[in-house]
Amino acid sequence: MGRVVVGVAVTVAVATCAVAALVVGRRVRSRRKWKRVANVVRELEEGCDTRVGRLRQVVDAMAVEMHAGLASEGGSKLKMLLTFVDKLPNGTERGTYYALHLGGTNFRVLRVQLSGQPSSDLEHEVERQPIPENVMTSTSQDLFDFIASSLKDFIAKEGDGSNISKDTRELGFTFSFPVKQMSVSSGILIKWTKGFSIVDMVGRDVAACLQEALTRKGLHVRVAALVNDTVGTLAVGHYHDPDTVAAIIIGTGTNACYLERVDAIIKCQGLLMTSGRMVVNMEWGNFWSSHLPRTSYDIDLDAESPNPNDQGFEKMISGMYLGDIVRRVILRMTLESDIFGPISPKLSMPFILRTPLMAAMHEDNSPDLREVARILNDIFEIPDVPLKARKIVVKVCDVVTRRAARLAAAGIVGILKKIGRDGSGGITGGRSRSDMKMKRTVVAIEGGLYSKYTLFREYLREALNEILGEDIAKHVILKVTQDGSGIGAALLAASYSS
Ligand code: BGC
């Protein structure tokens, strides 16, 4: 009997030890896997470092590159393109003007009514439609026929539709890609960005292609202005507030333009301009500096993109890319651990995670991060992600977005520095930065990433305050415009129509 009891006791002890060993082993393995994931996050944070010192280096690099791009053609990765816009609308424009806007996620057609009096609310109608994906990579004829048909349908809805081909209408075309302008109403496409790729279009006059397509459709519409979306935004921003000196787009792509003194544009010496100033389209999406915080995810994204070594700044900032950086980090985590369960093939699909969904995960305020779980399940087909792993996803979104917003802020300060509006101009003569008389400085901003993503906006503003200091930063006003790039093109068509 005694032996049996001893035997049972031994068996129980052995079993207990085995279970304990199993539990300990599992805990050790689990701890190791979370540690590996924590390392991925730590590495990402280090790689995305945007402390204020580094941002100031980016500011300086931006200002230096701006000088270089203005000095000579090809002098910098910043193209600093001439726009020939030397006067901005002031409210005296009168009549009905049309605008087409191509270049973001949606294509837009607009009609703007101008009364000849400055108005705080410009009367306009707008129709938006997604650009069919096949059109983005087809031929120039398909693209411009699509655009011209949309305008024709839009005009046909006016009145009884009978005057479609009678009256001549004036139009501003917002074309949000790098264009080498020959005049306000003509310019050749330098290259495509943001996933567009219509090879036969590069090197051709964009306005002429549109004009031909309008004629093919029997429309009597004249392309009076060809403008970048930044330029349209600046025009509308300046119309509403003459202190507006620059415009930024932070949407699918990113870019900036600003008003420059003609004598500072060394490469255009000899051009006769009426006002001594000209809007310069920076094409800052292509800005590059060794001070930019770059991770292995950025390097891979760039290498696998259709335009490697191009648009480096844009690939760290804009809506086209942020979701995909996050996808790459999650993929790496699943390769290093099983916190997201077995590897889902969806994780390897480029651009499957769109930035608006990434923003929704980032801004998920529910205690159990329900939205994060839903998106991981819907997009990547990863079910039942534990709360701890969902929190990590939110952290990754935060790191990627914070870097983007802070870099955009550094870009803005770079422009302010170039035009002497960063408050640093008067430090000489014993005056401190805060004593300086800083002019009210307005920057117009457009684009869904900025206007629809609260945390992005907050991070950008915070970085602006950090870089400039509160005393200077309070004079810098960021004003969101909506449909400004289109309305601005109509305003410019009015200013420049014969
Ligand atoms: C284009 C710019 C444009 C920006 C914002 C970039 O990809 O190169 O011309 O202004 O996107 O739409």
TrEMBL record:
It holds the Pfam family Hexokinase_1. The keyword Transferase applies. Residues 246-494 form the Hexokinase C-terminal domain. It is found in: Mitochondrion outer membrane. One of its GO terms (molecular function) is ATP binding. PROSITE patterns: HEXOKINASE_1, HEXOKINASE_2. Its EC number is 2.7.1.-. SUPFAM superfamilies: Actin-like ATPase domain. Keywords: ATP-binding, Glycolysis, Kinase, Membrane, Mitochondrion, Mitochondrion outer membrane, Nucleotide-binding, Transferase. GO terms for cellular component: cytosol; mitochondrial outer membrane. Pathway: Carbohydrate metabolism; hexose metabolism; Carbohydrate degradation; glycolysis; D-glyceraldehyde 3-phosphate and glycerone phosphate from D-glucose: step 1/4. It is a single-pass membrane protein. This is Phosphotransferase. It comes from Sphenostylis stenocarpa. The lineage of its organism: Eukaryota, Viridiplantae, Streptophyta, Embryophyta, Tracheophyta.
